[in-house]
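During the no-cost extension, the postdoctoral fellow (Dr. R.K.) reprocessed legacy sequence entries with the updated structure-token encoder. One reprocessed record is reproduced below for audit purposes.
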Amino acid sequence: MSSLTLHRRALLSGLVVAPAVLRFGQARAGGAYVFPLGVASGDPAPDGMVLWTRLANDPLAPDGLGGMGAAVHVRWEVAADEAFRRVVMTGDAMAEPAAAHSVHVEVAGLRPDRPYWYRFTALGQQSPVGRTRTAPAPNADLDRLRLAVASCSHWERGYFSAYGHMADENPDLTLFLGDYIYEYSMGPDRKDQIVRPYGLEEATSLAGYRNRYALHRTDADLQRLHHVAPCLAIWDDHEIQDDYSGIWSKTPGVSPDAFLRRRAAGYQAFYEAMPIRRTRLDARLQMPIYRRIRYGKLAEFFMLDGRQYRSRQPCADGPNGGKGQIVSDAACPDRRDPARTFLGFDQERWLYDGLANTQARWTVLGQDLVMAGLRFGDGGPDTKFWTDTWDGFPGARDRLAQAITALKPRNPVVLSGDYHSFWTNDVKLNAADPASATIATEFVGTSITSSGPPYEGLMATMPNNPQIKFFDSRVRGYMSIDLGRDRMTTRYRAISDVRDPRATVETLNTWVVEDGRAGATKV
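Re-encoded structure tokens follow.
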């Protein structure tokens, strides 16, 4: 019997889904429950947000359609109270096979800065109830905003207890900074590292990507996090393929045209699975997801796409194909080509225009990869850099640093994922010169489950990287952030053991950024 069959039987018998369903006390009508993937909300605005669900009665059906057939009529409701005694808005939607029976409702007309509850009804069954919240009015004097920040949740590496602890903190907003799923499954050579198998082949098709998201959404802790707060989500590489760059696969011999088809399938599945506003693949098989979200006068979020539009990995014609590598400029002069871009030139211009016009007290860049840089060496000609991060695109980083310096957005803070470790960094005007001015603060969150890079090896490089104030790759967890008028407080939250579904959590350390002063201080 295949592991895929085992997974499907476990799901259908309720071994995975039942905890989430029972927790929210939802009654089942006749037949299989069609809301096993829960509900979610995202991209809040002062008058509304996106409400999401996806119908499925066989979440891991091999065709990726969740066991559903024809289009299904869905009723949605928004209430001012959890008991739904004061329903303030209702509407109808169709769950279509072409979108894997996912539903995106863009609600408008609500009051700013207040909680709402929502639910869906289809085929005589009712979904779990989700809680969401509108953003404040653009000129509102908001005192405080609590964020939970996550990245890199590999199903096979452990349980998602970190998501449960994030939910317990009742954040106002959750940021997912990439690698929400992993496209590959670990082989027999790493079976000792597998806590719970994917039981799925590597995702390369639309059905494969859809089933990765479906499996993750059966997790009770992840469902609960989505049920308590709206989110802002972007992707990194594992939503498609490890280390891909723009239209280039890391696999030697794969043409851009062939990889574009795979990439388009992954992007379509991401849209179907996430509570983001309406977007679609265009004629070039691109899907825009970068966006600005304002929270009154307190904060403005620039959610960036650091994969779709960027240049090919530097020196990508070598034996590693398009994969990131550790190289020196002597071996890879292509790294310093100023014509190379990390965000794509259209997104760069959009970002600079936004930085010039933002009026918020805190300017938050939510993005996927370490920006401040990491040198493997003393800065001399033999110094090496990991090319998959912003270090592989120093010209693009220089342009952004110069834009921040010239445009002077207030309190720029970068939130990053990907590296499976906690970092507290000073972003420098000149990344090649640690003595140059600090222009922004960067916090990098560790992974939900994915294993970290070698701690001792990277710690040995830290004397050559004074811009890195803190680093720890030994723990898994998330970032909990309180934004206030005078300070931003970031707590690194560490999970006791990803192999334990009831893992505990503790604060590893806490950092503060003061209003008007770039750089973080440990408290």
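DSSP finds nine helices and 24 strands in the chain. The longest helix spans residues 256-273. The remaining legacy entries will be reprocessed before the final report is submitted.
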